[in-house]
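A note from the maintainers: we've had questions about how concatenated examples are separated. There is no special marker in the raw files; a new sequence line simply starts the next protein. For clarity in this README we add a label.
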Amino acid sequence: MSEQAGPSETARAPELHPDLAPLSLLLGRWEGAGVGGYPTIESFRFGQEITFSHNGKPFLIYASRSWLLDEDGNLVRPLATETGYWRPQPGGQVELILAHPSGIAEIYVGEVTGTKIELRTDVVARTTTAKEVTAGHRLYGLVGADQDLGWAYDMAAMGQPLQPHLSAQLKRAGR
């Protein structure tokens, strides 16, 4: 019985779907550090890796991993991870679907303006064991002369109103 062959590593990369042009600035692997805080937790520093890829279809595949860092920048332990899909829409609009292993799923809607992407939650769903998160606001953009990826996340959770929670500046580490 023969197995079906899948794409090999030597296979040609798929062409970028034309609908992805406004989001193409995100493509690649990004690494860096950021800061976090919230009224219900102590402030912290974190390291992060984000990957934006595509398979030729009209969406970006997104994955993010982060780690708690100590004062010297050393890795302490894993923090959050999230995966999802960025779906461009006509007129510079974009939809983002995210899933978190902590039991939270979010749908964001927003707009791409040049090198800036701003998104707000449309829906937040959670399992009975997930922490209470009720809203989010995300901002992504290319910043500085090196065109780093800067991003910020405001969150409403645990009875608190929407307010800053996380931000980071990441350098392109690969395409």
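[label: protein 2]
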Amino acid sequence: MKILGKKSLSSIIKIFLWILLIICLLVVLIGGIVVIKEFSYFNTDNTLRSLIILYLSSIPASILIIQFIGIFKSLENSKVFENQNVKRLKTSYITSITMGIMYLVNSIMLFLSRAEENWEIVYMFLMYVVTLVFLIFGVGLIVLLEIYKKAIKYKEENDLTI
């Protein structure tokens, strides 16, 4: 299967990302309604804070998905080395690191509140794992961004010499 162009892997991934974006936006809409409607149900500070942080993290997640849709759209159009992808990668690493920091703050606050229930301890451990995933992903995107900038520079130099 080809990677670039119409009917390629990038076009399939782009469709999947659109579906994921719709799900994420539904979480933002429905999640906000649930938090407001069931506000009194969440009787512990840990539960409410964790729910709010998870809800708020869907906003940068939506931005991250939109950036990747743009990247895969340019791959579908065979426009690989363009400066717009550099901007998209920069926005992607910022949102990824933002999400990692949000989850880290949640985990630290849960730890400081001396989580005692089993679900809180498991949730805290999972938040540390998710934090590491997003922070490492963000750093990986920074490295990819720098490699991408160099590739664009070399391509432009190569285009000038021909």
